[in-house]
Amino acid sequence: MAYECFDLTIEDAIAHIRLSRPEKVNSMTPAFWRELPEAVGDISDNARARVIVISAEGKHFTAGMDISVFMQGGLDAPAENRETAAEAFRHHVKMLQNTFSALEGARQPVLAAIQGGAIGGGVDLVTACDCRYASADAFFCIEETAIGMTADVGSFPRLAKVIPEGWARQLAYTAERLPAAKALEIGLVNEVFDSHEALLEGVMKIAHTIAAHSPLAVAGSKRMINYARDHSTADALDYIALWNAAMLRADDIKESYVAKMEARSAAYGDLHALKKSL
């Protein structure tokens, strides 16, 4: 399927979503918010890949939300309709939030390869990913404060769980740029690469490593890490015990040992496609 805002290719069990509007700094138009969850949902539900990589063409990763999205939400409603417009705007925001929650909810790990600026909604996007990698020229900016609003699409629930709370607060209050080196220091990104080319090459190498492992074990690990982040240690320990009691795949464990003895790469079965409810 062709998309308006990005290109999607699937090769070697890796789905590569590449933001493809560099002439518009990959701004997030209304089509973007519809297309991304649709693409990610299809990959996840139908097990079309084992890893998802998100990158971008051009100098910058993304300039964030396009102004047309704000207007669609009803911010320009007449004063006499302000209350009903506000109620509709809340639902509009929930729809936008669901776009990035699709990344967090995908069964596959999602890796973000970030060059240049990840601004506004770009921070929301990358914090919903499992791992973030940056080129040396990358920077991150929660720009909403500087344009008179509070970020509402996902930065705050996720960012303060990725980096120290004090840094999340400083970025939100000041709208300052966080350079790649500092992002690495405080844990926002896993690694910084010298160039855009080295960035994508490095991220694809990591993606291939992940894709070579048991898809069920990897999906379970993502599920457990997300669950442990949002629950107590006791609850998380109980959940992983229940998960493995129900879903531990003996064939994958056996295959991993046999492959080692035979000095070959293990061959694991893919996740099953999810059945749609009637």
Question: Can you put this structure into words, describing what you see?
Answer:
The chain has 11 helices and 9 strands. The chain is of the alpha/beta class and 278 residues long. The chain folds into 2 domains: 206 residues, 2-enoyl-CoA Hydratase, Chain A, domain 1 (Alpha-Beta Complex), CATH 3.90.226; 47 residues, Lyase 2-enoyl-coa Hydratase, Chain  A, domain 2 (Orthogonal Bundle), CATH 1.10.12.10. The strands form 2 sheets. It has a 6-stranded mixed beta sheet with strand order 1-2-3-4-6-9, with helices on both faces. The chain has a 3-stranded mixed beta sheet with strand order 5-7-8. Strand 2, helix 1 and strand 3 form a beta-alpha-beta unit. Helix 4 crosses helix 5, helix 5 packs across helix 6 and helix 9 runs antiparallel to helix 10.
Count of DSSP strands: 9
What order do the helices and strands follow? EEHEHHEEHEEHHEHEHHHH
Specify the CATH architecture of the largest domain.
Alpha-Beta Complex
The coarse overall form would be globular
Structurally, how many domains make up the residues?
Answer: 2
Label the structural class: alpha/beta
Strand content: 5-15%
Question: What is the CATH homology-level superfamily of the largest domain?
Answer: 2-enoyl-CoA Hydratase, Chain A, domain 1
Kindly provide the name of the CATH class of the largest domain.
Answer: Alpha Beta
Which blocks of ≥5 consecutive residues have pLDDT under 50?
none
Q: What is the typical, i.e. mean, pLDDT?
A: 93
Rg measurement, Å = 20 Å
CATH topology tier name of the largest domain: 2-enoyl-CoA Hydratase, Chain A, domain 1
Strand order of the largest sheet: 1-2-3-4-6-9
Described by strand count, sense and barrel closure, the largest sheet is:
6 strands, mixed
